What does this fold into?
Amino acid sequence: MSQTIEHVRIGDLLLKAEIISSGYIQEALGNFEAQGLPLGKVLVVSGYLNDSQLRVALDLQFMVNDGLLGLDEAVSVLKACHQRNLSLDEGFEDTGIIQPEDKDTNKLGQLLLDSGVISPNILSECLEANQKTSLPLGHIVCHRGYVSQVLVARTLIIQQLVRRGQVIRDQGIKSLRFARDREKQLMQLEVNRGYRFMPLKNAPLLGDFLFEAKILPERQIRQCLVDSVVNACCLGEALIKSTSIGRQLVEKAVILQECLDNETLTVEEAFASLGEIKTRGISVVQAMAEVATYKSRENKARDLITLLAASGILEKSRVPESVQERLQVNYNQIAPVVKELLAQAVVKEEILYSALRAVDLVDRKVITQEKAIVSMDFSARSASDIEHTLYMTGVTNRTRLRDRETGAE
It folds into this structure.
C-alpha cells in the first residue's frame, strides 16, 4: 500500500494560503449549514472568492489529497495564483514548482468514469456544469439523475480510503463496479418500485449512523468500510459478517435513513430510535412513535383515541374507563394509555403504534388529519404499518434500495 496521505479540506488550504481568515470560514460555514450549499460555493456567492480562484484551489486540493503535490507546495502555488491573478499553469510556472501530470487521479469524476458508472459524454457534460456553477461534481451528477447519491457517497469513501493507502485503486474501481451492478439489479425488484435518484441531504451514512447511535465503535466501522471495498460487497454485509449486529438491525437502520430522507424524522430522533431498537428489539414504527410522542408535554392520548375512533379501528364505547379518565388530564398520558390499550387487547399492537406514529406525522404537518384517517384505514385493512402505507399512497418516496421486502417490523 502507498504512503498514508492526510486529507486536506478546501477551507484549510485557503486558510494556510492566507486568502481568507478563520472568521470568514466560520461565517461561510454558517451560511453553508443554512443554505445546504458546499463551502466553496458559499465563498463564491458571498464574494470571498471568484469562480476561477475557487477552481484553482479545488484543483490544488485534489493534487494534495491524491498525493501528487505536497501541502506546502500547493500553498505556494495558490498564493501566487491569488496574489497575481494567475491561472493554475501560470502559478506553477511562476513558483518554479513542477506541475503533476493529471492522469490516474482519484478525482470523483475519474473514479466514476473508470468504473463505468458514467460515460465520457456524461462526465464532460457535468464537468462543464461544474465549471459554470462551482457546485461539486457529485451534486451535479446526482441532481441530473445520472448517479444515485448513495453511489456518489460510496465513491467519496473509496476516494478517501485510496488516498489514505488503506485500499489500492484497482480494489476501489472493482468495488464501484459491484455497487453499480447491484444497484441496477435491486432497482428491478418490486419492493423498490418508484425508486429514483435524488439528492439526499438529511440522513447520515450508515457507518456514521451506527457510530452516532453508539451501536458500534468508529474503529470497527472503519475496518468494515475497508472490508466492503476489498471484498466488493456492501457495507451492510460487511457489518453483519464482522460485528455482533444482525441483519435486522442493519435493515431497520436503512428504514430510519429513508425516514430522514423523507423528512419525517429528525436526526436526533433517528439516533434515539435506533438505540431503542437495539436495546429492546422493538419495531421501527414503535421506536419512532415512542421517541416522538412520549416526550411531548401535550396529552397525545387524546389525539390517539380520536384517530383510532375516526378511522373505525376503535369504537368509543370500547375505550376502557381507565383510559377515558386519562384523556381528561392536561399533561401527557400517552405511555400509560398505550400500555392499557395493549393490556386489554382492544387494538392490535402494530396498528396501535402505527396510529401513534400517524399522530406525530400530523403534528409535523407531513400529513393532514384526513390523510391520517385514510392511511390508518388502509393499514388496518391491508395489515401493513403506516410507513408502508405512506409509501404505497405516494406520501413518501423510496430513497434506499432494499434487497427484500422487510417492512418496518
Remarks:
- The CA atoms of residues 300 and 334 lie 6 Å apart.
- The longest helix spans residues 169-186.
- Confidence is low (pLDDT under 50) at residues 1-5.
